[in-house]
Amino acid sequence: MEPRMLQLLFVLHVLAFPVQLCEIPRGNPALIKCLNMELLRLSQDLSEELNPSVYLALRLSADHSLEKEAQYLQRLKNVFQPSASSSKAGGQQKQPNTGRLALYLLALRAACQDMERLLERRLVTRLKHHLHKEKEQIAFKRNGRPITSYYQYSLGVLALCVHGKKIDSHVIQKLLNAEQHNKFTHGSKLSVDTTAMAGLAFACLKQANLYEPKLVAAISLAVQRVTNRILQAQTTRGTFGNIFSSPLAMQLLIATRMSKKPVCPKGMDALLGSLEQGHFQNPMIMSQLLPVLDGKSYLDIATMECQAEQDTLELDTQCPGARTVILGTKMIIVQLAVEHPPNPETLYNHSIQVLSGSSLQDMLRTAAEQGPGHFTFETQNTLHGPFLAAVMGVKASNGERRYWQLLQAPDTSLQKGISDYHPQDGESIILKFSPW
Ligand code: B12
Ligand SMILES: *[C@@H]1O[C@H](CO)[C@@H](O)[C@H](O)[C@H]1NC(C)=O
Protein backbone atom coordinates (compact mmCIF):
# COMPACT_ATOMS: atom_id res chain seq x y z
CA MET A 1 0.00 0.00 0.00
CA GLU A 2 1.12 3.56 -0.61
CA PRO A 3 2.44 5.36 2.44
CA ARG A 4 -0.16 8.10 2.05
CA MET A 5 -2.90 5.53 2.03
CA LEU A 6 -1.50 4.04 5.21
CA GLN A 7 -1.43 7.46 6.78
CA LEU A 8 -5.03 8.01 5.84
CA LEU A 9 -6.03 4.67 7.27
CA PHE A 10 -4.23 5.52 10.47
CA VAL A 11 -6.03 8.85 10.73
CA LEU A 12 -9.35 7.16 10.11
CA HIS A 13 -8.58 4.61 12.77
CA VAL A 14 -7.73 7.29 15.32
CA LEU A 15 -10.91 9.18 14.46
CA ALA A 16 -13.02 6.10 14.83
CA PHE A 17 -11.63 5.16 18.23
CA PRO A 18 -10.87 8.46 19.91
CA VAL A 19 -10.99 7.37 23.54
CA GLN A 20 -10.15 3.71 23.25
CA LEU A 21 -6.44 4.42 23.20
CA CYS A 22 -5.60 3.29 26.70
CA GLU A 23 -6.82 -0.22 26.49
CA ILE A 24 -6.15 -2.79 29.12
CA PRO A 25 -3.21 -4.64 27.60
CA ARG A 26 -3.68 -8.16 28.87
CA GLY A 27 -6.93 -7.45 30.58
CA ASN A 28 -7.99 -10.03 33.05
CA PRO A 29 -11.71 -9.44 33.44
CA ALA A 30 -12.01 -11.99 36.23
CA LEU A 31 -9.40 -10.16 38.29
CA ILE A 32 -11.12 -6.83 37.81
CA LYS A 33 -14.46 -8.33 38.69
CA CYS A 34 -12.97 -9.70 41.91
CA LEU A 35 -11.73 -6.23 42.84
CA ASN A 36 -15.21 -4.88 42.21
CA MET A 37 -16.71 -7.66 44.30
CA GLU A 38 -14.25 -7.11 47.14
CA LEU A 39 -15.25 -3.44 47.28
CA LEU A 40 -18.90 -4.43 47.28
CA ARG A 41 -18.21 -6.86 50.11
CA LEU A 42 -16.41 -4.10 52.05
CA SER A 43 -19.41 -1.83 51.60
CA GLN A 44 -21.55 -4.45 53.33
CA ASP A 45 -19.13 -5.03 56.21
CA LEU A 46 -20.34 -2.98 59.16
CA SER A 47 -16.98 -3.23 60.90
CA GLU A 48 -15.29 -1.29 58.07
CA GLU A 49 -14.93 2.49 58.17
CA LEU A 50 -17.64 4.10 56.00
CA ASN A 51 -15.86 5.46 52.96
CA PRO A 52 -17.46 7.63 50.24
CA SER A 53 -14.53 6.73 48.01
CA VAL A 54 -15.60 3.08 48.05
CA TYR A 55 -19.05 4.21 46.95
CA LEU A 56 -17.53 6.25 44.10
CA ALA A 57 -15.71 3.20 42.82
CA LEU A 58 -18.87 1.08 42.90
CA ARG A 59 -20.77 3.77 41.04
CA LEU A 60 -18.12 4.30 38.37
CA SER A 61 -18.00 0.58 37.64
CA ALA A 62 -19.86 -0.87 34.65
CA ASP A 63 -21.37 -3.62 36.77
CA HIS A 64 -23.65 -2.87 39.73
CA SER A 65 -25.53 -4.19 42.65
CA LEU A 66 -27.99 -1.31 42.76
CA GLU A 67 -29.70 -2.36 45.96
CA LYS A 68 -26.46 -2.69 47.92
CA GLU A 69 -25.23 0.60 46.51
CA ALA A 70 -28.42 2.29 47.66
CA GLN A 71 -27.99 0.82 51.14
CA TYR A 72 -24.45 2.08 51.31
CA LEU A 73 -25.49 5.55 50.17
CA GLN A 74 -28.07 5.60 52.95
CA ARG A 75 -25.44 4.73 55.55
CA LEU A 76 -23.20 7.49 54.20
CA LYS A 77 -26.09 9.96 54.43
CA ASN A 78 -26.74 9.00 58.03
CA VAL A 79 -23.20 10.00 58.89
CA PHE A 80 -22.64 12.99 56.63
CA GLN A 81 -26.14 14.47 56.77
CA PRO A 82 -27.59 13.35 60.08
CA SER A 83 -31.23 14.43 59.93
CA ALA A 84 -32.94 16.04 62.90
CA SER A 85 -34.25 12.68 64.14
CA SER A 86 -30.91 10.90 64.21
CA SER A 87 -28.80 13.85 65.34
CA LYS A 88 -28.86 12.83 69.00
CA ALA A 89 -25.98 10.49 68.34
CA GLY A 90 -24.65 12.88 65.71
CA GLY A 91 -23.64 15.39 68.35
CA GLN A 92 -20.29 13.78 69.00
CA GLN A 93 -19.76 13.21 65.29
CA LYS A 94 -16.84 15.35 64.20
CA GLN A 95 -17.40 17.73 61.29
CA PRO A 96 -15.82 16.15 58.21
CA ASN A 97 -12.67 17.79 56.94
CA THR A 98 -12.38 19.34 53.47
CA GLY A 99 -11.40 16.08 51.77
CA ARG A 100 -14.11 13.91 53.32
CA LEU A 101 -16.80 16.45 52.61
CA ALA A 102 -15.54 16.65 49.02
CA LEU A 103 -15.64 12.85 48.65
CA TYR A 104 -19.16 12.81 50.02
CA LEU A 105 -20.27 15.46 47.54
CA LEU A 106 -18.69 13.47 44.73
CA ALA A 107 -20.64 10.48 46.01
CA LEU A 108 -23.92 12.43 45.85
CA ARG A 109 -23.18 13.41 42.26
CA ALA A 110 -22.32 9.80 41.41
CA ALA A 111 -25.77 8.89 42.78
CA CYS A 112 -27.41 11.61 40.63
CA GLN A 113 -28.96 13.15 43.76
CA ASP A 114 -31.00 16.31 43.50
CA MET A 115 -28.68 19.05 44.72
CA GLU A 116 -31.22 21.86 44.63
CA ARG A 117 -32.80 20.86 47.93
CA LEU A 118 -31.98 22.95 50.99
CA LEU A 119 -29.83 20.36 52.80
CA GLU A 120 -27.78 19.60 49.72
CA ARG A 121 -27.31 23.26 48.88
CA ARG A 122 -26.04 23.75 52.41
CA LEU A 123 -23.43 21.05 51.90
CA VAL A 124 -22.13 22.82 48.82
CA THR A 125 -21.98 26.07 50.75
CA ARG A 126 -20.13 24.31 53.52
CA LEU A 127 -17.50 22.97 51.15
CA LYS A 128 -17.09 26.43 49.64
CA HIS A 129 -16.61 27.76 53.14
CA HIS A 130 -14.00 25.07 53.91
CA LEU A 131 -12.07 26.02 50.79
CA HIS A 132 -12.28 29.67 51.71
CA LYS A 133 -10.73 28.87 55.10
CA GLU A 134 -8.02 26.77 53.48
CA LYS A 135 -7.30 29.64 51.10
CA GLU A 136 -7.02 32.13 53.97
CA GLN A 137 -4.57 29.84 55.72
CA ILE A 138 -2.40 29.73 52.56
CA ALA A 139 -2.52 33.52 52.27
CA PHE A 140 -1.82 34.00 55.98
CA LYS A 141 1.94 34.14 55.54
CA ARG A 142 4.64 33.68 52.96
CA ASN A 143 4.96 30.02 52.10
CA GLY A 144 1.61 29.42 53.75
CA ARG A 145 -0.04 26.01 53.46
CA PRO A 146 -3.65 24.89 53.51
CA ILE A 147 -5.14 23.73 56.82
CA THR A 148 -5.32 20.14 55.62
CA SER A 149 -3.21 19.61 52.49
CA TYR A 150 -3.13 20.44 48.79
CA TYR A 151 -4.48 16.95 48.21
CA GLN A 152 -7.68 17.74 50.08
CA TYR A 153 -7.79 21.25 48.66
CA SER A 154 -7.72 19.72 45.17
CA LEU A 155 -10.43 17.21 46.09
CA GLY A 156 -12.58 20.12 47.26
CA VAL A 157 -12.10 22.01 44.00
CA LEU A 158 -12.76 18.84 42.01
CA ALA A 159 -16.00 18.11 43.88
CA LEU A 160 -17.45 21.58 43.36
CA CYS A 161 -16.38 21.50 39.72
CA VAL A 162 -17.95 18.10 39.10
CA HIS A 163 -21.22 19.55 40.44
CA GLY A 164 -20.94 22.36 37.90
CA LYS A 165 -20.48 24.99 40.61
CA LYS A 166 -18.48 28.09 39.89
CA ILE A 167 -15.48 28.37 42.19
CA ASP A 168 -14.08 31.61 43.58
CA SER A 169 -11.21 32.56 41.26
CA HIS A 170 -8.96 33.28 44.27
CA VAL A 171 -9.38 29.70 45.40
CA ILE A 172 -8.36 28.49 41.95
CA GLN A 173 -5.49 30.96 41.81
CA LYS A 174 -4.03 29.57 45.05
CA LEU A 175 -3.93 26.10 43.55
CA LEU A 176 -2.33 27.48 40.39
CA ASN A 177 0.29 29.27 42.50
CA ALA A 178 1.02 26.08 44.40
CA GLU A 179 1.57 24.26 41.13
CA GLN A 180 3.88 26.98 39.82
CA HIS A 181 5.94 26.91 42.98
CA ASN A 182 6.21 23.13 43.22
CA LYS A 183 4.20 22.86 46.42
CA PHE A 184 2.81 19.41 45.71
CA THR A 185 5.54 17.79 47.75
CA HIS A 186 6.04 15.88 50.98
CA GLY A 187 9.37 16.87 52.43
CA SER A 188 11.48 17.51 49.37
CA LYS A 189 9.90 14.77 47.28
CA LEU A 190 7.17 15.20 44.70
CA SER A 191 3.88 13.72 45.90
CA VAL A 192 2.53 12.00 42.82
CA ASP A 193 -0.85 11.47 44.53
CA THR A 194 -1.23 15.17 45.30
CA THR A 195 -0.03 16.19 41.83
CA ALA A 196 -2.50 13.80 40.20
CA MET A 197 -5.40 15.02 42.33
CA ALA A 198 -4.55 18.63 41.54
CA GLY A 199 -4.34 17.65 37.87
CA LEU A 200 -7.83 16.14 37.99
CA ALA A 201 -9.13 19.36 39.54
CA PHE A 202 -7.45 21.46 36.83
CA ALA A 203 -8.71 19.16 34.06
CA CYS A 204 -12.27 19.56 35.34
CA LEU A 205 -11.96 23.34 35.62
CA LYS A 206 -10.59 23.50 32.08
CA GLN A 207 -13.72 21.81 30.71
CA ALA A 208 -16.12 23.82 32.84
CA ASN A 209 -16.70 26.81 30.57
CA LEU A 210 -17.30 29.07 33.55
CA TYR A 211 -14.15 31.16 33.70
CA GLU A 212 -12.66 34.09 31.88
CA PRO A 213 -10.17 33.34 29.08
CA LYS A 214 -7.11 34.46 31.02
CA LEU A 215 -7.85 32.10 33.89
CA VAL A 216 -8.68 29.28 31.49
CA ALA A 217 -5.33 29.77 29.78
CA ALA A 218 -3.53 29.48 33.11
CA ILE A 219 -5.56 26.38 33.99
CA SER A 220 -4.76 24.75 30.64
CA LEU A 221 -1.09 25.39 31.17
CA ALA A 222 -1.33 23.85 34.64
CA VAL A 223 -2.96 20.71 33.22
CA GLN A 224 -0.07 20.35 30.81
CA ARG A 225 2.63 20.94 33.40
CA VAL A 226 1.10 18.61 35.93
CA THR A 227 0.61 15.88 33.35
CA ASN A 228 4.22 16.21 32.25
CA ARG A 229 5.37 15.92 35.81
CA ILE A 230 3.39 12.73 36.24
CA LEU A 231 4.83 11.32 33.02
CA GLN A 232 8.34 12.12 34.24
CA ALA A 233 7.62 10.29 37.47
CA GLN A 234 7.13 7.00 35.63
CA THR A 235 9.56 4.32 36.74
CA THR A 236 11.08 1.61 34.55
CA ARG A 237 8.53 -0.76 36.05
CA GLY A 238 5.76 1.40 34.66
CA THR A 239 4.45 2.83 37.93
CA PHE A 240 4.07 6.55 38.52
CA GLY A 241 5.77 7.27 41.83
CA ASN A 242 5.12 4.11 43.81
CA ILE A 243 2.50 1.51 42.94
CA PHE A 244 -0.03 3.09 45.31
CA SER A 245 0.07 6.52 43.69
CA SER A 246 -0.27 4.98 40.22
CA PRO A 247 -4.07 4.61 40.24
CA LEU A 248 -4.58 8.36 40.68
CA ALA A 249 -1.79 9.11 38.19
CA MET A 250 -3.52 6.88 35.65
CA GLN A 251 -6.82 8.60 36.35
CA LEU A 252 -5.20 11.86 35.35
CA LEU A 253 -3.81 10.37 32.13
CA ILE A 254 -7.24 8.99 31.31
CA ALA A 255 -8.92 12.32 32.06
CA THR A 256 -6.46 14.26 29.92
CA ARG A 257 -6.50 11.71 27.08
CA MET A 258 -2.77 11.25 27.36
CA SER A 259 -3.32 7.63 26.63
CA LYS A 260 -1.88 7.93 23.11
CA LYS A 261 1.55 7.47 24.57
CA PRO A 262 3.03 4.05 25.35
CA VAL A 263 3.31 5.08 29.00
CA CYS A 264 -0.34 4.29 29.39
CA PRO A 265 -0.46 0.54 28.68
CA LYS A 266 2.79 0.20 30.57
CA GLY A 267 1.25 1.82 33.63
CA MET A 268 -1.83 -0.35 33.28
CA ASP A 269 0.36 -3.42 33.03
CA ALA A 270 2.11 -2.56 36.27
CA LEU A 271 -1.21 -2.08 38.04
CA LEU A 272 -2.61 -5.37 36.79
CA GLY A 273 0.58 -7.18 37.75
CA SER A 274 0.37 -5.87 41.30
CA LEU A 275 -3.33 -6.61 41.46
CA GLU A 276 -2.62 -10.18 40.48
CA GLN A 277 -0.03 -10.47 43.22
CA GLY A 278 -2.50 -9.21 45.80
CA HIS A 279 -0.72 -5.94 46.57
CA PHE A 280 -3.90 -3.89 46.70
CA GLN A 281 -5.54 -4.58 50.03
CA ASN A 282 -6.27 -1.12 51.30
CA PRO A 283 -9.92 -0.16 50.61
CA MET A 284 -8.99 3.44 49.83
CA ILE A 285 -6.38 2.44 47.26
CA MET A 286 -8.65 -0.26 45.84
CA SER A 287 -11.33 2.36 45.37
CA GLN A 288 -8.93 4.64 43.50
CA LEU A 289 -7.84 1.73 41.31
CA LEU A 290 -11.11 0.18 40.15
CA PRO A 291 -12.22 3.12 37.95
CA VAL A 292 -8.85 3.04 36.17
CA LEU A 293 -9.28 -0.59 35.19
CA ASP A 294 -12.56 0.43 33.57
CA GLY A 295 -10.86 3.32 31.77
CA LYS A 296 -12.59 5.87 34.02
CA SER A 297 -11.53 8.83 36.13
CA TYR A 298 -13.29 10.98 38.74
CA LEU A 299 -14.04 13.43 35.93
CA ASP A 300 -16.50 10.94 34.52
CA ILE A 301 -18.70 11.46 37.58
CA ALA A 302 -19.69 14.84 36.11
CA THR A 303 -21.57 13.19 33.24
CA MET A 304 -23.13 10.22 35.02
CA GLU A 305 -26.83 9.77 34.32
CA CYS A 306 -27.64 6.79 36.54
CA GLN A 307 -29.91 5.23 33.96
CA ALA A 308 -30.12 1.76 32.43
CA GLU A 309 -27.35 0.46 34.65
CA GLN A 310 -26.32 -3.15 34.57
CA ASP A 311 -27.59 -4.61 37.85
CA THR A 312 -25.79 -7.94 37.76
CA LEU A 313 -23.03 -7.82 40.34
CA GLU A 314 -23.48 -10.60 42.88
CA LEU A 315 -21.43 -11.35 45.94
CA ASP A 316 -21.33 -15.10 45.55
CA THR A 317 -18.81 -15.54 42.73
CA GLN A 318 -15.57 -17.13 43.76
CA CYS A 319 -12.69 -14.78 44.34
CA PRO A 320 -9.53 -15.26 46.36
CA GLY A 321 -9.98 -13.60 49.75
CA ALA A 322 -7.40 -10.93 49.11
CA ARG A 323 -7.52 -9.38 52.56
CA THR A 324 -7.36 -12.41 54.76
CA VAL A 325 -3.95 -12.85 56.32
CA ILE A 326 -3.21 -16.11 57.98
CA LEU A 327 -1.32 -15.90 61.24
CA GLY A 328 1.53 -18.36 61.46
CA THR A 329 2.36 -20.52 64.43
CA LYS A 330 6.03 -19.61 64.43
CA MET A 331 7.36 -16.72 66.48
CA ILE A 332 9.43 -14.02 64.79
CA ILE A 333 11.61 -11.31 66.27
CA VAL A 334 11.39 -7.72 65.11
CA GLN A 335 13.44 -4.78 66.36
CA LEU A 336 11.45 -1.66 67.22
CA ALA A 337 13.17 1.70 67.66
CA VAL A 338 11.72 5.16 68.25
CA GLU A 339 13.57 8.28 67.10
CA HIS A 340 12.68 11.85 67.90
CA PRO A 341 15.22 14.12 66.22
CA PRO A 342 16.94 16.39 67.06
CA ASN A 343 16.89 14.52 70.37
CA PRO A 344 20.03 12.38 69.93
CA GLU A 345 18.86 9.53 72.15
CA THR A 346 16.67 6.76 70.84
CA LEU A 347 13.48 6.98 72.91
CA TYR A 348 12.92 3.25 72.77
CA ASN A 349 14.82 0.35 71.23
CA HIS A 350 13.88 -3.25 71.97
CA SER A 351 13.23 -6.47 70.14
CA ILE A 352 9.65 -7.74 70.11
CA GLN A 353 8.41 -11.29 69.64
CA VAL A 354 5.23 -11.82 67.64
CA LEU A 355 3.59 -14.57 65.63
CA SER A 356 4.70 -14.66 62.02
CA GLY A 357 2.16 -12.96 59.78
CA SER A 358 1.41 -10.30 62.40
CA SER A 359 0.84 -6.76 61.21
CA LEU A 360 2.98 -3.88 62.41
CA GLN A 361 -0.04 -2.78 64.44
CA ASP A 362 -0.18 -6.18 66.18
CA MET A 363 3.48 -5.77 66.96
CA LEU A 364 3.00 -2.29 68.46
CA ARG A 365 0.20 -3.71 70.63
CA THR A 366 2.44 -6.50 71.81
CA ALA A 367 5.21 -4.02 72.59
CA ALA A 368 2.80 -1.86 74.60
CA GLU A 369 1.21 -4.75 76.50
CA GLN A 370 4.01 -7.16 77.27
CA GLY A 371 7.21 -5.98 75.64
CA PRO A 372 10.24 -4.68 77.51
CA GLY A 373 10.48 -0.95 78.27
CA HIS A 374 7.51 1.36 78.34
CA PHE A 375 6.21 1.58 74.81
CA THR A 376 3.00 3.53 74.25
CA PHE A 377 1.15 4.54 71.11
CA GLU A 378 -2.18 5.91 69.89
CA THR A 379 -3.97 5.49 66.60
CA GLN A 380 -6.60 7.51 64.81
CA ASN A 381 -9.09 6.03 62.37
CA THR A 382 -8.99 7.45 58.86
CA LEU A 383 -10.44 6.42 55.52
CA HIS A 384 -7.09 4.84 54.88
CA GLY A 385 -7.07 2.77 58.04
CA PRO A 386 -5.51 3.33 61.46
CA PHE A 387 -3.01 6.19 61.40
CA LEU A 388 -0.22 6.12 63.98
CA ALA A 389 -1.03 9.41 65.71
CA ALA A 390 1.20 9.34 68.82
CA VAL A 391 4.21 7.42 70.09
CA MET A 392 5.63 7.62 73.63
CA GLY A 393 3.15 10.42 74.29
CA VAL A 394 4.40 12.55 71.38
CA LYS A 395 1.54 13.47 69.08
CA ALA A 396 1.71 14.07 65.34
CA SER A 397 0.83 17.66 64.61
CA ASN A 398 -0.98 18.95 61.57
CA GLY A 399 -0.11 22.58 62.25
CA GLU A 400 3.60 21.87 62.50
CA ARG A 401 3.34 19.29 59.75
CA ARG A 402 5.03 16.54 61.72
CA TYR A 403 4.11 12.88 61.77
CA TRP A 404 5.37 9.49 62.88
CA GLN A 405 7.06 8.12 59.81
CA LEU A 406 7.34 4.35 59.46
CA LEU A 407 10.75 3.17 58.31
CA GLN A 408 12.57 -0.03 57.71
CA ALA A 409 16.12 0.37 59.08
CA PRO A 410 18.15 2.22 58.20
CA ASP A 411 16.07 4.63 56.11
CA THR A 412 13.54 3.00 53.78
CA SER A 413 10.14 4.62 54.17
CA LEU A 414 7.39 2.00 54.31
CA GLN A 415 4.76 2.14 51.59
CA LYS A 416 2.02 0.75 53.80
CA GLY A 417 0.43 1.72 57.09
CA ILE A 418 0.58 -0.09 60.43
CA SER A 419 -2.40 -2.38 59.77
CA ASP A 420 -1.36 -3.34 56.22
CA TYR A 421 2.36 -3.83 56.79
CA HIS A 422 3.60 -7.23 57.95
CA PRO A 423 7.20 -7.28 59.19
CA GLN A 424 9.49 -10.24 58.50
CA ASP A 425 11.61 -12.13 60.99
CA GLY A 426 14.74 -10.20 61.90
CA GLU A 427 13.47 -6.96 60.43
CA SER A 428 14.14 -3.65 62.10
CA ILE A 429 11.40 -1.00 62.21
CA ILE A 430 12.00 2.62 63.11
CA LEU A 431 9.28 5.06 64.10
CA LYS A 432 10.68 8.49 63.41
CA PHE A 433 9.11 11.85 64.19
CA SER A 434 9.50 13.58 60.82
CA PRO A 435 8.49 16.76 59.01
CA TRP A 436 6.36 16.55 55.87
C1 B12 B 1 -1.45 13.69 52.63
C2 B12 B 1 -0.94 12.29 52.87
C3 B12 B 1 -0.14 12.06 53.99
C4 B12 B 1 0.12 13.12 55.06
C5 B12 B 1 -1.17 13.28 55.94
C6 B12 B 1 -1.23 14.53 56.79
C7 B12 B 1 -2.26 15.53 56.36
N1 B12 B 1 -2.55 16.45 57.22
O1 B12 B 1 -2.81 15.51 55.29
C8 B12 B 1 1.33 12.49 55.82
C9 B12 B 1 2.63 13.04 55.25
C10 B12 B 1 1.35 12.68 57.32
C11 B12 B 1 1.20 11.01 55.44
C12 B12 B 1 1.79 10.00 56.17
C13 B12 B 1 1.86 8.68 55.75
N2 B12 B 1 1.43 8.19 54.58
CO1 B12 B 1 0.28 9.19 53.36
N3 B12 B 1 -0.76 10.05 52.05
C14 B12 B 1 -1.27 11.26 51.96
C15 B12 B 1 -2.14 11.37 50.69
C16 B12 B 1 -1.32 12.12 49.63
C17 B12 B 1 -3.51 12.04 50.86
C18 B12 B 1 -4.35 11.53 52.04
C19 B12 B 1 -5.69 12.26 52.13
O2 B12 B 1 -5.74 13.42 52.44
N4 B12 B 1 -6.80 11.57 51.81
C20 B12 B 1 -8.12 12.16 51.68
C21 B12 B 1 -8.88 12.32 52.99
C22 B12 B 1 -10.28 12.83 52.68
O3 B12 B 1 -9.03 11.07 53.66
P1 B12 B 1 -8.70 10.97 55.24
O4 B12 B 1 -8.81 9.57 55.65
O5 B12 B 1 -9.44 11.97 56.00
O6 B12 B 1 -7.16 11.40 55.15
C23 B12 B 1 -6.26 11.14 56.21
C24 B12 B 1 -5.56 9.80 56.07
O7 B12 B 1 -5.40 9.49 54.68
C25 B12 B 1 -4.23 10.04 56.75
N5 B12 B 1 -3.15 9.33 56.08
C26 B12 B 1 -2.30 9.82 55.20
N6 B12 B 1 -1.47 8.85 54.77
C27 B12 B 1 -1.84 7.73 55.41
C28 B12 B 1 -1.31 6.45 55.33
C29 B12 B 1 -1.89 5.45 56.07
C30 B12 B 1 -1.35 4.09 55.93
C31 B12 B 1 -2.98 5.73 56.95
C32 B12 B 1 -3.58 4.67 57.78
C33 B12 B 1 -3.49 7.03 57.03
C34 B12 B 1 -2.90 8.01 56.25
O8 B12 B 1 -3.97 11.45 56.68
C35 B12 B 1 -5.10 12.11 56.06
C36 B12 B 1 -5.32 13.45 56.72
O9 B12 B 1 -5.62 13.30 58.08
C37 B12 B 1 -2.34 9.86 50.32
C38 B12 B 1 -2.58 9.61 48.82
C39 B12 B 1 -3.72 8.69 48.45
N7 B12 B 1 -3.63 8.12 47.27
O10 B12 B 1 -4.67 8.49 49.18
C40 B12 B 1 -1.02 9.25 50.88
C41 B12 B 1 -0.97 7.77 51.25
C42 B12 B 1 -2.30 7.35 51.80
N8 B12 B 1 0.05 7.67 52.31
C43 B12 B 1 0.70 6.56 52.29
C44 B12 B 1 1.68 6.16 53.24
C45 B12 B 1 2.42 4.87 52.97
C46 B12 B 1 1.94 6.93 54.39
C47 B12 B 1 2.87 6.54 55.56
C48 B12 B 1 2.62 5.14 56.08
C49 B12 B 1 4.34 6.73 55.11
C50 B12 B 1 5.38 6.26 56.13
N9 B12 B 1 6.27 5.40 55.72
O11 B12 B 1 5.40 6.68 57.25
C51 B12 B 1 2.53 7.65 56.60
C52 B12 B 1 1.56 7.24 57.73
C53 B12 B 1 2.32 6.76 58.95
C54 B12 B 1 1.49 6.73 60.19
N10 B12 B 1 1.85 7.53 61.15
O12 B12 B 1 0.53 5.98 60.31
C55 B12 B 1 0.32 5.70 51.09
C56 B12 B 1 -0.52 4.49 51.50
C57 B12 B 1 -0.28 3.30 50.60
C58 B12 B 1 -1.04 2.06 51.02
N11 B12 B 1 -0.53 0.95 50.72
O13 B12 B 1 -2.08 2.12 51.62
C59 B12 B 1 -0.38 6.77 50.17
C60 B12 B 1 -1.43 6.21 49.24
C61 B12 B 1 0.75 7.48 49.38
C62 B12 B 1 1.52 6.54 48.47
N12 B12 B 1 1.26 6.54 47.20
O14 B12 B 1 2.41 5.85 48.91
N13 B12 B 1 0.48 10.87 54.31
C1 LIG C 1 18.83 -0.49 68.45
O1 LIG C 1 19.64 -1.48 69.07
C2 LIG C 1 20.33 -2.34 68.17
C3 LIG C 1 21.10 -3.36 68.97
O2 LIG C 1 20.40 -3.78 70.07
C4 LIG C 1 21.27 -1.51 67.29
O3 LIG C 1 21.91 -2.37 66.36
C5 LIG C 1 20.50 -0.44 66.58
O4 LIG C 1 21.36 0.41 65.86
C6 LIG C 1 19.68 0.40 67.56
N1 LIG C 1 18.81 1.29 66.78
C7 LIG C 1 18.69 2.59 67.02
C8 LIG C 1 17.82 3.35 66.08
O5 LIG C 1 19.22 3.15 67.94
From TrEMBL:
SUPFAM superfamilies: Terpenoid cyclases/Protein prenyltransferases. Pfam families: Cobalamin_bind, DUF4430. Residues 357-434 form the Transcobalamin-like C-terminal domain. Belongs to the eukaryotic cobalamin transport proteins family. The keyword Disulfide bond applies. Interacts with CD320 (via LDL-receptor class A domains). Disulfide bonds join C22-C264, C161-C204. Cyanocob(III)alamin binds at T148, S149, Y150, Y151, Q152, D193, N242, Q288, W404, Q405, L406, L414, W436. This is Transcobalamin-2. Primary vitamin B12-binding and transport protein. Delivers cobalamin to cells. Keywords: Cobalt, Cobalt transport, Disulfide bond, Ion transport, Metal-binding, Secreted, Signal, Transport. One of its GO terms (cellular component) is extracellular space. The gene is TCN2. InterPro entries: Cbl-bd_prot, Cobalamin_Transport, Terpenoid_cyclase/PrenylTrfase, Transcobalamin-like_C.
